[in-house]
Amino acid sequence: MCDSRSIKILSxxxxxxxxxxxxxxxxxxxxxxxxxxxxxxVVVENALGIEAWGIKLMYQYAxxxxxxxxxxxxxxxxxxxxxTDASFLDHEELISLTRAVILINPECYxxxxxxxxxxxxxxxxxxxxxxxxxxxxxxxxxxxxxxxHRKWLLKYHCHCQNxxxxxxxxxxxxxxxxxxxxxxxxLVNEHxxxxxxxxxxxxxxxxxxxxxxxxxxxxxxIWVLQTLSWSKKNIVESELEATKRWASMHVSDHCGWQYRxxxxxxxxxxxxxxxxxxxxxxxxxxxxLLASFPGHETIWYHRRYVVQALMEHDSYKLLVxxxxxxxxxxxxxxxxxxxxxxxxxxxLQKDMKCTKKIKLDKCIxxxxxxxxxxxxxxxxxxxxxxxxxxxYIKWIDIFVTGIAN
Length: 405
Description:
The protein is 69% helix and 3% strand. The chain has helices spanning 4-19, 52-72, 91-104, 109-120, 126-139, 144-162, 168-176, 180-185, 193-210, 215-228, 233-249, 254-270, 275-292, 297-312, 319-332, 341-349, 354-377, 383-404; strands at 25-29, 41-44, 47-51. Strands 1-3-2 form a three-stranded mixed sheet. The longest helix has 24 residues, at 354-377.
């Protein structure tokens, strides 16, 4: 039996969206019991709130009605009909019901698919779902289905922008056949994408701030750059600078560092001439963070990535620039089994075989990193930092030995 309060709450929610089209945030108000005769839907400064006691009532009503409608969309063979084949439906009510469901439970992919069909049948504007998705992510920043729907919206929107004369049939075809290669072929007007990309990056940043180590937000951010701005050097470089500030404030966010590694690799692909400068700058940046934030495993792992990238791109000689003189001084007092830096320099200038050069170069790498760790841990009493430094030295030894052999 339908509770009349459910219909009233849903009506209040619809009114809130009509009166406040620029809603920015959404959350559940911890009010477990109704107060007087007040609506549980509250809007304050473009922030939407729904009191907890009204959530269950509205969700049960909206979900059950949507699922009942869905069951009726079947032909004689039991296959679901499209909305265009079910003209008896009130699409405005369907929009309202599906919105109520995914505000509370954004992982209901059946409801997202219904909204896709509404968009493809020209009964719902993509812009409405862009706004709705942003609102949902303010409450559920780690919702994979919301990010998946945004991917579909971006593909659909860009396809329509570049194919304004497409028929509804073509759009339905895109709903089923929207692979990455076909999508990239449709991106003929890159100027239209600039604002979209910036908007998506802002949404990802908001979601990452609300939920740390948000894999879905950072993965979506990578997808946006790979799909919409793969060759945009200015966007990649601005993102690299922005994540530098972000990483300085979130030093333990593994996902954020992984995204930064993606940006470094992409920058190297776009501007190979800056490889050495970029990697050396990143190494200096990591060195500063290790000194400022001791005991954070994520930073040590990122240093492993940078050192490995230096080796892969033949930029290892710069590792000696900061610690070379100190290492030379140390080698004078060490035993004979330690490589002498002066003899290494002499040998590097000779016309040697490639294998011998590799072994000597790896010794330079190992010495430089050992010198860095020694200087970093000198006087350090923080056990976590000491253990991580020892683990890093062990990794360097294994890494150098493995490559040299």
